[in-house]
Design goal:
two-stranded antiparallel ribbon; 53% helix; DUF433; Homeodomain-like_sf; mainly alpha; 72 residues; WH-like_DNA-bd_sf
């Protein structure tokens, strides 16, 4: 999967969305924070592929891990 997230001023006013959708990435984090599963998220937002959701979560983990490792 080459692209995971799209940011464009004409799509959801520049809010980061899943590639080829209009679903904000923040929705996934809100679901997980609220105790829901990735499968529940996919059920409610079928335009997002399961692999996309996992890739966003992996990207978040990598970003946090790298940022904190760089500060240590």
């Amino acid at each position: 999967m080459n692209q995971i997230i799209t940011i464009h001023p004409d799509i959801q006013s520049g809010t980061p969305v899943f590639f080829n959708t209009r679903v904000p990435v923040k929705n996934l984090f809100d679901y997980v924070k609220g105790g829901h599963t990735v499968n529940e998220f996919i059920d409610d937002f079928p335009s997002v592929k399961y692999e996309q959701a996992l890739a966003v979560l992996d990207l978040a983990v990598s970003t946090v891990t790298l940022n904190f490792a760089a500060r240590a």
